[in-house]
Design a protein that fits this description.
The complex is a heterodimer of chains A (311) and B (419).
Chain A lengths: L1 H36 L9 H4 L4 H7 L18 H11 L1 H5 L9 H32 L1 H14 L4 H14 L6 H24 L4 H9 L4 H36 L8 H10 L3 H32 L5
Chain B lengths: L2 H14 L3 H12 L3 H15 L5 H11 L3 H14 L2 H9 L3 H7 L8 H6 L2 H10 L1 H11 L12 H7 L3 E14 L2 E14 L3 E5 L6 H8 L7 E6 L4 H6 L3 E4 L11 H5 L1 H5 L4 H14 L15 H13 L5 E5 L7 H18 L2 E6 L2 H7 L2 E6 L4 E7 L14 H16 L5
Helix pairs in contact in B: 1-2, 1-10, 4-5, 5-6, 16-17, 19-20
The chains are: A mainly alpha (311), B alpha/beta (419).
């Protein structure tokens, strides 16, 4: 345990170090502009002139203003601490003030995104499993459905998302939740489908022969052999699927003028020039994905241990 | 056996047995017969005895039906089969069970429930405690001196009495592949009789596994005829006539050993109580008692293979087909399992088809060794083993054993051109 802590911490430190180091060159121009407006000495003067000077030269000739770049209100690249503070401000601090469900709280937006993600995940998983069963048991379905499943994944979801929203409003569905769930299901069904097809086909031919010697019915061999042996494959797919479902939901919130959800926060942050909000929303999405995948991982461990298959 | 002898046994058994009531009932049945019928009984008995595929069953049939020749036997069979598969198997294994099915109540001194659920071994022990029945059964079982098997016409033996369990005539199997047809089996003819232990030996590609799979209806022959228990292989499969053991144990990792053994029972719809009893019984049979709740990965390869044999035995099929079951195990474990398999065969009286690569294994186990050769897959020699049924491991150092092994090796060499 202790042996793995050190490398993990080292990698984390390197990432944070690179991030931290990149803040100076990324923010130096904004910092110099700000300093100039405050009548401080800046070399060279005038933001138009500075445009032709490389960031490294600017850092070298204005060392006293580099620190300003680490405390900007609207930085090009915020520091890790700034992102952390913003995250705390929009989550934990809101909870402390009893405003967890305010429109400015990432908990509220995260919850909106999570709802659509889970609906989409459930729908996509169900479709994926049903499709896989159909593909495994019917050659015709295999040949007719599988190419479409593959083609569906080559279409950029950003292009498809607005259309799904327009179509669903045509069908009289006003809420944003449903089309978002459809988009996330669209992204999530494919890994589940592929994983389950592989899983359902994983029993060796001798295993199937054995069931034939018992004169087992198709349903019996599905329930007693194919389904249990596909479970490890299913969990691997589910972990990919839930991450895809989250991405799908966020993408569904981005180009569609949604006002709530993590994707909407990112879009609004972009439109109002508040990069800190974008970064906080990004991290919130990453943390949400991490939590979901970890929960699935735990379920997998418990299930497989119960089934006697140590992973 | 004469009628007098028969009566004598019946008479002497009465005083000491707690089965008095049953015996009296049986006597009444026999006494109720007319002289003509009795004569017919004795005659038909002598004629059919040696050809009967199960002496015990014939014996029981005579008692129950007054011994009315073949028709009577088939009447009895119908009656028995109508009682269900389980009843049939019980009575074939031990005639005493017929009392249970005749009178629907246990012998004096036993509760009905107990009688229905005792494990087989316990029942055997009880059987031995009543020597008069045992004597009766063994008298019927031992062939009359002077009368040989070949005095019974093959027609009687095969057509009516179905002694041959597996019968293959001029069997062909050709696979169509991209490289042209492959003759997996060509002109294979073989009879496997009830209670035989038949080994199939030969190099890879000689069709030994394919032949076994044909018997199991996992492959369909392209020519010739094949019958299993007097049915087509597919009918036999649907009647669950055989248990199949593959080279790899193939236990489900998500089921315990007990769960794996009850898999066929679940599929065949046995009741929960029946499943539990059978799992317990078969696990004792393969010396795995106490491992019921372990998962397969917790067991050694040899133990896993024993569990897979138990799984094939659990539903009481009369035929056991084994495809190189010990091929993946090391020599010492293999010896041990061979010894156990022989003991199991002696106890269960199954008919066993056994595919192997190993000459010593084939010679040690079999009553009949079928030597096969490849391209096309065919039988080059069928060797009836002269070795006794009781075989300790060191029988493998006796001259008879070595001579037999030599003959098998010669057969293999003859059928195999090393070009």
């Amino acid at each position: 345990m202790m042996r793995s802590v050190l490398p993990v911490l080292t990698v984390l430190a390197v990432i944070l170090g690179v991030w931290w180091g990149a803040v100076a060159p990324m923010n130096i121009r904004v910092a110099l502009d700000q300093a100039e407006r405050a009548d401080l000495v800046v070399v060279p003067e005038g933001s138009v002139v500075r445009r032709d000077v490389s960031v490294w030269r600017l850092i070298a000739s204005n060392t006293e203003h580099v620190a300003t770049g680490y405390a900007l209100e609207r930085p090009r690249l915020p520091t890790p601490t700034q992102v952390g503070q913003e995250l705390w401000k929009t989550t934990g601090a809101m909870v402390q003030r009893g405003r967890a469900w305010s429109k400015r709280s990432l908990i509220y937006h995260g919850w909106i995104t999570l709802q659509s993600t889970l609906w989409g995940f459930a729908l996509g998983t169900a479709l994926g499993i049903l499709g896989a069963v159909a593909i495994v048991y019917s050659r015709v379905v295999d040949m007719s459905l599988m190419p479409w499943a593959i083609i569906s994944q080559t279409i950029p979801i950003v292009a498809l998302a607005p259309m799904i929203i327009i179509l669903s409003s045509q069908f009289g569905i006003d809420g944003r939740g449903f089309p978002k769930a459809i988009i996330s299901a669209y992204l999530c069904f494919f890994p589940v489908l592929v994983g389950m097809v592989k899983g359902l086909r994983s029993p060796a031919s001798s295993q199937l022969d054995l069931l034939q010697t018992y004169n087992a019915t198709g349903l019996q061999s599905f329930l007693k052999l194919r389904l249990p042996s596909s479970i490890p494959y299913l969990f691997t797919s589910l972990k990919i699927g839930i991450a895809a479902a989250l991405v799908g939901t966020i993408v569904g919130e981005l180009p569609t003028g949604a006002i709530s959800g993590l994707g909407a926060r990112i879009l609004i942050g972009d439109q109002f020039g508040t990069p800190l909000a974008i970064w906080a929303a990004l991290f919130a999405a990453a943390i949400l994905a991490g939590v979901l995948v970890t929960l699935l991982d735990l379920t997998q461990r418990i299930t497989l241990t119960r089934m006697g298959m140590r992973s | 056996m004469s009628l007098e002898q028969f009566w004598k046994v019946i008479e002497t058994s009465g005083a000491t047995s707690s089965y008095d009531a049953q015996i009296t009932a049986l006597k009444e049945i026999l006494e109720g017969l007319s002289d003509e019928e009795l004569t017919k009984f004795v005659e038909s008995y002598d004629r059919a005895r040696d050809a009967a595929f199960s002496y015990k069953l014939w014996f029981v049939a005579y008692i129950v039906n007054g011994g009315c020749s073949d028709d009577g036997f088939y009447y009895f069979l119908d009656w028995l089969i109508a009682k269900g598969q389980r009843a049939y198997h019980r009575v074939t294994r031990n005639p005493l069970w017929v009392l249970f099915y005749l009178f629907r109540r246990p012998p004096d001194g036993y509760e009905l429930e107990e009688f229905g659920q005792v494990p087989q071994q316990v029942y055997f022990d009880r059987f031995e405690r009543f020597p008069e029945y045992y004597a009766l059964a063994s008298m019927v079982n031992s062939p009359n001196e002077g009368q040989k098997m070949n005095e019974v016409s093959p027609k009687d033996a095969n057509q009516h009495l179905n002694k041959s369990v597996v019968s293959a005539q001029n069997l062909d199997l050709t696979f169509q592949t991209n490289d042209g047809p492959v003759h997996a089996l060509k002109d294979v003819s073989l009879e496997i009789n009830k209670g035989d232990f038949v080994s199939f030996i030969g190099p890879s590609g000689c069709g030994k596994t394919t032949f076994l799979r044909c018997i199991a209806a996992l492959e369909t022959p392209t020519g010739g005829s094949l019958s299993v228990n007097g049915m087509s292989p597919d009918e036999a499969r649907r009647a669950r006539a055989y248990g199949y053991v593959f080279q790899h144990a193939g236990l489900y990792p998500w089921r315990t050993i007990g769960g794996n053994i009850s898999l066929p029972l679940e599929i065949m719809g046995y009741s929960k109580a029946d499943q539990a009893e059978r799992v317990k019984r078969t696990m004792e049979l393969v010396d795995l008692a106490g491992f019921e709740r372990k998962f397969p990965w917790q067991l050694s390869g040899g133990m896993q293979q024993r569990a897979s044999i138990a799984r094939a035995l659990a539903f009481d099929a009369d035929i056991l087909l084994m495809d190189e079951p010990f091929g993946a195990l090391d020599e010492i474990v293999r010896d041990h399992l061979n010894e156990q398999l022989l003991r199991l065969w002696a106890r269960t009286e199954k008919t066993i088809g056994f595919v192997t690569h190993s000459i010593p294994e084939a010679v040690y186990l079999s009553t009949k060794i079928v030597v096969m050769s490849p391209r096309p897959g065919r039988i080059t020699d069928i060797i009836e083993s002269p070795l006794p049924k009781e075989r300790p491991l060191d029988i493998r150092d006796t001259p008879a054993f070595l001579e037999l092994a030599h003959r098998v090796r010669e057969g293999l060499r003859a059928g195999h051109a090393y070009d």
